[in-house]
Amino acid sequence: MHQLWLIPALPFAGFLVNGIFGRRLGKPAINAVAIGSVLLSFLWVVKTLFALGPLESAYTESYFTWIQSGIVNVGFDFAVDRLTAVMLLVVTGVGLLIHIYAVGYMSHEGGYYRFFAYLNLFMFFMLILVLAANFLLLFVGWEGVGLCSYLLIGFYFLKKSAGDAGKKAFVVNRIGDFGFSLAIFLTLVTFGSLDFGAINAKAAAMSPETSAGVITGICLLLLVGATGKSAQVPLYVWLPDAMEGPTPVSALIHAATMVTAGVYMIARSAALFNLAPIALEVVAVIGLLTAVLAATIGLAQNDIKKVFAYSTVSQLGYMFLALGVGAYSAGIFHVMTHAFFKALLFLGAGSVIHALEGEQDLRHMGGLRSKIPVTFLVLVCAAVAIAGVPPFSGFKSKDEILLAVHAHSPWMFWVGVVTAGMTAFYVFRAIFLCFFGSYRGKAHPHESPLVMTLPLGVLALLSLGGGYIDVPHYLAPLFGQPNTDHDMTLVAISVGAGLAGIFLAWLFYVVKPAIPEALAKGLSGPYKLIYNKYYVDEVYDSLVVHPLRDGSRSVLWRGIDAGLIDGAVNGAGTLARSIGAGLRTMQSGYIRRYAAWVVLGSIGLVAAVTFLGGAR
Amino acid sequence: MPSEFPIPIPPLPLPEAVPLAWYLILSAILFSLGVAGFLFRRNIITVFMSIELMLNAVNLTFVAFSYHLKSVDGHIFSFFVMVIAAAEAAVGLAIILTVFRNRQTLEIDEVSSLKL
Fold first, then answer.
1. Positive or negative CA dihedral for A522, A367, A356, A34?
2. Is the CB of residue A229 less than 8 Å from the CB of residue A146?
């Protein structure tokens, strides 16, 4: 036994201590509990992974039978294989850095202990999610991180927009989770088990004729769940709004870890998806669509966190694209590098916001290069990583994905390359608008404290060098050997797209700031379209939200609830009352009248018995 | 029906001089008188006596059937009725006494305050 349960239990203990006693603890004690629990968890992960050695096959720990009823036999089991190992290190490692950063970022905020209690609870559920050895336990973690996401998006609950964003995230995720739970039911019915190992073995043993339909169904339903959690078309709309939460939350939950749960879940079910080529194709198309759509929206956003939020959606699309073309290890590789550079982008943006005392609008920034040099430096590191500049981490993983995509279908490769160019453009647009030119705001910028810049520095190193952690080869026992034949032309094309994006951003926002305005005027139609995010929210509002709300109001509330149900209940009451009112006239209080009723009743009874022949 | 007694009792030569129907008719008349008295008299004591009349009419029926069917069940029933009637008389008279003390009346329609 390696006591895997300690890994999630430690943050949970931190949650309990901070959640129950946090109000009475001082800030140093809250910090010690919150960071200490995650640090211990991280160290336990490292120790366990060293003790487990090469991990050629999955290592499972069974604790107890959780549910035993008919064919449902679910154990409370944790399993570690190489995929889990990568996720564990990313979650606890990046989580630890973000916890440390949050100490500085949240120092002036109310509800300090509440924030760290939620954050620890999130770590607990996320670790349950990646450690789970069966679908149901994974679903527990899946719902749990959704809950924490809701709580943390709505952290500033006095702000209406924050509460609304939290509710939106919750409701949109519910749609996805509905699909996911259907997938779990179908899995249980089909395979009679929810354990990943057992499912994989049984799916492989099924004959292709019988399995194709049902496995495709399961995979498509899983995909519905993944599109909700991982913000893919058509359920991505909650993620940009989720930026209402505090910036460390955006970094941890809505960039580095939780939103990659969908990617992890599909990679975990790779054995099923490999048997369902149609579902895989759908995954790829959805990923590609998301990547392009979100990247174009990101081109025209003015809120620095919104830019990075759409960038997250777009990069998640990339990961789905990788999964869809069967390059699972490349997808997970991108999960890791993305966790590094996107967490860094968000934390850097948080540092900028912190420096400007809450300002998030890029139009009110500028010229901050000399005022907050450390933040500038680390944001550039993140930007070159995400833009795919060799030899940094984003280049490595994106290259891996694009090569696999090209082997699958060249047209997808070209769309991916264009997206990569757009990615480089909007990220550097944000950098140039924020740090170059002259300062356009009113606040007095100040550099963030060491407790914030230290995690930024570590993440910057990981963003730059993280690509040398050879995840694809490490994951080879699970997903097969990655394609090592690096076609230099293709690499050059994708790098060129990234560099072109950077160059264009430099040209537009540093050299000739008049160009973007002229472009926005000249192409006002398309500009307005992407500036308003393709009006997707408005379309959903009029197609889904309004019909639902109006239908609920007029049919379900006024018709069924007020009319039918209330009518039936009130009608029953009125009926009883009127019958009672009739009967109470019998109860006059005169004894002789009662006796008369008795006599009449007995005469009636005797008559009934006599004429109807009741007595036999 | 085999006798449970060690010494078999010979069937009694019971005369049927008065037919069963006459008893029943008499009982019905007595019962009807009781009902009528209960319904139409206003004095509580008279009402009470009407009840006793009805009970005894029923007793008569029981005993008549018991004799006719040569079964002891009817007797037992009528004993029960008598015991109950005695108990009821005790309680009923006590109630009547209390009512009279409180209301200075035995008019039954005056005692109607138990209605809703």
1. positive
2. yes
At residue A358 the predicted structure's pLDDT band, cuts being 50, 70 and 90, is confident
Cβ pair B109:A584 closer than 8 A: no
**Contact call for B113 and A587, based on CB within 8 A:** no
Mean pLDDT, range A247-257, rounded to an integer: 91
ipTM above 0.90, yes or no: no
| CA A67 to the chain's CA centroid | 27
Quote the Cα angle for A239-A241-A245, to 5°. Answer: 95
Closest-CA distance, A596 to chain B, in angstroms, reads 7
Contact present, A133 and A13 (Cβ < 8 Å): no
Which of residues 47 through 66 in chain B touch A, CB cutoff 8 A? 47
**What was the pLDDT predicted at A88?**
94
Domain ranges within chain B, ordered by starting residue: 42-106
- B108 to A587: CB separation less than 8 angstroms, yes or no: no
Look at the block and give the residue holding tokens 């309990």. Answer: A16
In this structure, what are the phi and psi dihedrals at residue A79, rounded to the nearest 5 degrees? Answer: -135, 145
The DSSP code sequence of A363-423 is GG----TTTSHHHHHHHHHHHHHHTT-TTSHHHHHHHHHHHHHHHH-HHHHHHHHHHHHHH
Structure confidence at residue A133 as a pLDDT band (50, 70, 90): very high
Supply angle C-alpha A402, A404, A405, rounded to 5.
60
Maximum C-alpha span of chain A: 112
pLDDT at residue A438, rounded to an integer: 84
- Give the pTM: 0.79
The per-residue pLDDT for range B61-104, each reduced to its tens digit, is 999 999 888 889 999 999 999 999 999 999 999 999 998 998 88
Q: DSSP class of residue B109?
A: G
Q: Which CATH class is domain B42-106?
A: mainly alpha
> Which among A587, A590, A595 has CB closest to B38?
A595
> Hey, is the C-beta of A599 within 8 angstroms of any chain B C-beta?
yes
- In whole angstroms, give the CA distance from residue A509 to residue A489: 30
The kind and range of the H/E element at A63 are: strand A59-69
Report whether A275 contacts A215 (CB < 8 A).
Answer: yes
Say if CB B112 and CB A592 are below 8 A apart.
no
B39 vs A599: CB contact, 8 Å cut-off?
yes
Does residue A408 register a pLDDT over 60? yes
Q: Which residues in chain A are contacts of B106 at CB distance < 8 A?
A: none
B11 confidence band (pLDDT: 50, 70, 90): low
CB burial readout A172-196, b (16+ within 10 A) else e = bbebbbebbbbbbebbbebbebbbb
pLDDT tens per residue across span B16-54: 678 889 999 999 999 999 999 988 888 989 999 999 999
